[in-house]
Amino acid sequence: MVDDGTRGEADEREFLAAYDPHAYAPAAVTVDVVAMTIRAGEPLVLMVRRGASPQRGRWALPGGFVRAQDGPGGPADPDLPDAALRVLAEKTALPATLHLEQLGTYGARDRDPRMRVFSVAYMLLAPDLPDPGPGRDTAEVAWVPWRDLGHGGTARHEPAFDHAGIVADAVERARAKLEYTSLATAFLPPVFTITDLRAVYEAVWDRPLHAANFHRKILAAPGFVEDTGGLADRGGSGGGRRPRLYRAGGSAALHPPLLRSAQ
Amino acid sequence: MVDDGTRGEADEREFLAAYDPHAYAPAAVTVDVVAMTIRAGEPLVLMVRRGASPQRGRWALPGGFVRAQDGPGGPADPDLPDAALRVLAEKTALPATLHLEQLGTYGARDRDPRMRVFSVAYMLLAPDLPDPGPGRDTAEVAWVPWRDLGHGGTARHEPAFDHAGIVADAVERARAKLEYTSLATAFLPPVFTITDLRAVYEAVWDRPLHAANFHRKILAAPGFVEDTGGLADRGGSGGGRRPRLYRAGGSAALHPPLLRSAQ
DNA sequence: TGAGTTTTTCTCGATCTGAGGAGAACTTAG
DNA sequence: CTAAGTTCTCCTCAGATCGAGAAAAACTCA
User: Fold this and answer.
1) What one-character-per-residue DSSP string does A91-131 give?
2) What is the pLDDT of residues A85-104, one digit of tens each?
3) What is the DSSP letter of B69?
4) Cα separations (Å) of B260 from A62, B16, B36, B37, B124?
5) Domain boundaries, chain A
6) CB contact (8 A) between residue B137 and residue A11
7) Membrane-crossing residues (chains A, B) (predicted)?
8) CB of B16 less than 8 A from some CB of A
9) Is A116 in Cβ contact with B49 (below 8 Å)?
10) Which superfamily, per CATH, for B28-174?
11) Nucleotide nearest to B245 (CA to C1')
12) Chain A positions in Cβ-Cβ contact with residue B18 (cut-off 8 Å)
């Protein structure tokens, strides 16, 4: 049975009262972006050196507040992905092609000492990007190797807040999705070789793969890559046969998957 | 270079000013729970009939506001999973064993007509639960088959707000994770048979599987299940050999995976 | 011209898969 | 008690797939 009338209105009154800004201490909704790329076989994450306390001088993920409503600072973000792209664009130039996917939301009580902050983390994958110039309100922006951002241990740059954990979640997500999706092409320009693709897998998984078997499996997976008909120019050092050029195929899922555990 | 001093303080002032409750219209953070179970081979989701407008009388996911701070309504939620379990416990009794995982956060501008709402959705998997009694502020709570909640089309119960999409995301997540993880055991009691496990896969994937090959693959995946040494009592209708009893093994990832595309 | 490099194809034994068959263990009907 | 039916478990086998290595193809550089 539907309980209508008074109960219903009470529910709605409760909804609005519970979020009367005067009744509760403030809580913020932010987006943080784990922007990943691969440069010379090294996986990198875009990090921002904090210019303000707390945690001044430490690396943090680029992020910012979600604009919930139109206000003096600008129009509202229509959706969360818009907010993610907006805050990232304030730190660096966005590439023409990118893959953006939501990673998760972090809201532990004491993750930020100033107030209760709920951060929606996004993972952004892009081909190698130019080095960013300093943003307008940030002291320093840089691409930092994944391996330097680990939890404790040998990490050279311990990130601020819980951002080390967020980066670790992004790295694990990327490693897993390379197994059963065609996500690896998001790290590459529109046209690439099978060797380029293998270099992505080797960089992300941090282990060598058998070139001949990789080649066979990629071409056996329907819709992963499609032949452009062209060959690379080459002429670089080392010599070797000119590789064929491919572009990303239409399918998002890989059948059969490429398993990390396998060779 | 670290830009310290004035810039840093300005940054922090901006942080606090931007979320001065008086300066901005309110935005809410809620949790919505997609609680899933399987009863008699039918996958079900826990839904709540809305007692208040808007969308009065339609089915919605159980959810509620995240308590960002201690307040008159109770103590703050230490983290988002705590909030998810709290709001679900207000609607139904929680099972002894459950799997809770974050699904994603939904924040499109017009998803709720009353105000800007950011909803962190959680997926909860549990063994078959008793039917819930009506909660204290809800007209009706029921387990509804997945297939009745689809977007448009033949759906018999069109859910409120964007909850059809959230359920669809949860269903797809569950289907995918059954391939690569031992998640299926979350739908089963502590002790189960291989046939019970196969029934979970068949219900979630909505297609029959070859019993003999399924049996072989489950036992070949290290750490998926472990033999308890016991046999089922049986005595039910139909007869048949008494099946062995297993419990969930320690490993979370399945190697090799069980692919949906395969038989 | 020849050595070295990289890409691509081929080979082969081992393993895995899908499909069906059949034995084992049990219930129920007669 | 026997026979028929059901369910669980194991076996078989042809075909596909995999890992590892060899080798051919195509190119650079000295």
Assistant:
1) TSPPPSS-EEEEEEEE--TTSSSSSEEEEEEEEEE-S--PP
2) 999 998 888 999 999 999 99
3) S
4) 38, 49, 20, 20, 22
5) 28-174, 180-248
6) yes
7) none
8) yes
9) no
10) Nucleoside Triphosphate Pyrophosphohydrolase (3.90.79.10)
11) D8
12) 65, 73
Q: Which nucleotides of C are covered by protein (CB under 7 A)?
A: 3-10, 16-28
- Is the Cβ–Cβ distance between A169 and A36 less than 8 Å? no
Burial A48-74 (b: 16+ CB within 10 A, else e): bbbbbeebbebbbbbbbbbbbeeeeee
- The structure tokens listed for A15 are 């909804």
Class for the domain spanning A180-248: mainly alpha
User: Does residue B159 surpass a pLDDT of 80?
Assistant: yes
**DSSP H stretches of helix in B94-238:** 163-180, 194-205, 211-220
What is the torsion angle, in degrees rounded to the nearest 10, for the CA atoms of residue B104, residue B109, residue B112 and residue B118?
40
- pLDDT, tens digit, 9 for 90 and up, residues B181-195: 999 999 999 999 999
To the question of pTM greater than 0.70 for the whole model, the response is yes
- Pick the closest to residue B225 from B235, B216, B234, B233 (CA basis): B216
* DSSP code for B133: P
Paired tokens of B126: 């549990």
Whole-angstrom distance, CA of residue B174 vs CA of residue B136: 30
